[in-house]
Structures are given as structure tokens and as C-alpha cells.
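[Automated response] Your request has been received and processed.

Submitted sequence:
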Amino acid sequence: MKEVTSFSKFSKKQKIDFLIKTFFNGSFDIRERIESFWHKSESFQRAFDEFSENTITNFFLPYGVVPNLMINNDLYCVPMVTEESSVVAASAKSAKFWMTRGGVKTKVISTAKVGQVHFFWYGQTPRLESFFKGLVPELKKCVAPLVHSMEKRGGGIKSIELVDKTSIEKGLFQIHVKFETCDAMGANFINSVLEAFATKLKESVEASTFFTSEERKIDVIMSILSNYTPECLVRSEVSCSIEDLDHLGLSMDPEVYADRLRKAVLIANSDVYRATTHNKGIMNGIDAVVLATGNDFRAVESCAHAYAARSGQYRSLSDVKIEDGSFTFSLELPLALGTVGGLTSLHPLAKISLEILGQPSAPKLMEIAASIGLAQNFGALNSLVTSGIQKGHMKMHLFNILNHFNTSEDEREKAKAFFVDKVVSHNAVKEFLNGLRKYH
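Generated structure:
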């Protein structure tokens, strides 16, 4: 491939022409396949094209729903976007089990988000601290037009703090700001405020007669929100008597089963290899809701994993408690989500998702996403400590393998019946189909 210049200025047709000529020897079939994923609505397709850069088509993922999720005595049908086999099925099975046992109890503990201005300044820290105290009112004043609408909705700036980071490197400081963004995720709002703070800080330091000429030198490195939001926290839990767990159709005593779940979480709390996969299972559910509602799953992922490592060791995000004959399974993590603005207001399916959920507030969406994460984690652990993860997972994966071999409906039904009690693998399915087709 040769270097291509000004690619972003090409029309969509020109971009596709380039790809076909460069990678597919001019095959007309490739153009047809790419264009087959375009939305039939020109206005929708235009919106999809503008979500990103150099867009040539759309990439589809399955959009499913989990019914019967009871949260704080309200019943929800939860949209999920995921391609991973068994995630929706496991979440739905767990949701149905807990629905008749009080459902999920959730609580939003806090909703603060964070942004920072990082800068270098060389002088005596007490002098900067004294100056900064007098600067705070000016900082608030300079962003008054930016925060006015957010304040009317009950949000805005919660605190502004100067943080000394000189132990890391000489001269390093930051302005640490906490925000309340109500139902918005608030990234653009936060970044706009921070950049205004940075400009005001630089201008004020450079113009101050309080400082010496050397102290007036300031280097603002960057102004940016943080995706680590440990004070945007939600807790979700389910609970029942240990005897009631027997309704899962266990092949073991419910006391033994409950203790196996406890030990599974204990292992995830003490071993980073297990904890990573354990928490990935939780995020299988949460990410699917985040995607379906047009939120930023990458920000949610990075925050959750940072929170899991807050003690200095990466640990499980969920917990099991067994006490006085009662079993409690819980999850606590930070979730910075929004239900207004951004992609949530632009993506047609994100809007449908929010309608299915009853147009929830951001805190309510936090509760819904956390509850799905809890349900998914319970389903995964249930499989792990009983039949093993592969039995259910590979049963779902069978459909993907059958699609790979372009099977007919009759072949699919025969394969499903054949593999009901057998190990599913690509080679095993291939051999079965070869034998089946030999006589047709």
C-alpha cells in the first residue's frame, strides 16, 4: 500500500473506490457488500456517517433485550448490545430468578464527576496556595455563562481545589474540580469549563504583581476531564435465604452452593488473573447497556477497572456475604452515564432504548446498568461453580459455527439435537455436517 494524502477530504464513494482498488483488486462484490449495510433512511445514514471520521458503512451488532429485571420494585425490560454468546441469556435467567425474590435493590451513593488542569509553576507552594484562594472567585466568575444552564438543572461546579504534585516532579500542580452534570454525561461541559479555568489561571499568574518575574512563568500542560469517577458510585444487590437458592435446580446442597459462590469471589479478590476475567464478565453486561443507550463504554470500562485496583491490588467488583442463613450478592462500582445530549440524543436506537427504559434519569440508568452487571456476574459464577462455563457458552456458540457452514434449517435442528449432551467444537460440528451431507 502506498501513502494516501487528504483521505479525509474524499467523498464516501471515493473512499470506497480507494479501498476496493487497493485491497480487493477492484471487485464489484466488495462495494455491494459494503453498501448493503447502509441504512435505507438517508437522514439516518447521514447521522451515522457524521458520528465518526472516514466513515464508509455501518458495523452491525446484535441488539437484544432482557425482560423481568426487577429493580427497587419496578420491572424493566433492558436493551443490550453485545455479540458475545450467552451474555443476554445469562442476564435474563438471573433476572427472572431474582424477580420473585425481591428483585435487585440499588442505591446511587454519589454522582460527582472530575476534571483537572495540570500545570507547572516554580516557586514556594504556600505563595501559590495563598494566590489561588483569591483566584477561586474569579475562576467561578469567568465560567458563569458556561455553567448557568447546568446550574438551573441543579448541577454545576461542586468544588475547586489546588493540588500539590511536586513530589512527582518539581513544579507540578493541578486544579482538581468536581462537577455535577445531572442527566448529561457532561464531557463537553466539563472540558469547556476546564479550558476556561486554564486560560484564566495563566492570564492571572502572568499579570499578578503578587509574584516575582520568575514566579509569573507558568506552563499549562493540559485541561481534561477524568474518566476515573470514584464519587459517581452505585451499589446493586440481591438477597435471599440460602435454602431458596435450591430453586436454581442445583445438583448440590444449597449451603454448599452458596459457599462455592463465596469462595469464587474470594479467589477473584485475591488473584489478579481471576479478577480480570471475573470483572470482564460484569462488564459484559454493563457495556451492553452502555452501548445500547449511546454512552461511552470505553470510559465506563477504564473507570471500573481503575476502581477495582483502588486498594493497590486489582480485585473483584462484586461480593458475596453469607450470614444467619441469608445469601447476599452485591456489586459496587462507579458509572458515569448520561441520558441527554451526545449520542444518546442522536442515535435512533439509543433513543429507542431510553424509551424502552421509561426515559430514565442518569442516576436511574446507573442503577439499571449496575443491576445487569450483577445479573450477568451471578449467571457466570452460577455456571462456573456448577456445570462449568463451556456447557452454556458453547451451546450458544454452536449457532455461530452452524452459520459459518451455511447450514439449512433442517441441518441446524439436527445439529442442535445431536450436540445437546456433547462437547461443541468447530471440528466436531464440521465432522457432524460432513457425515450428514454425505447421504444427501
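Summary generated for your ticket: Residues 393-438 form one domain. The chain has four domains: 7-51, 63-110+232-387, 113-226, 393-438.
If you did not submit this request, please reply to this message.
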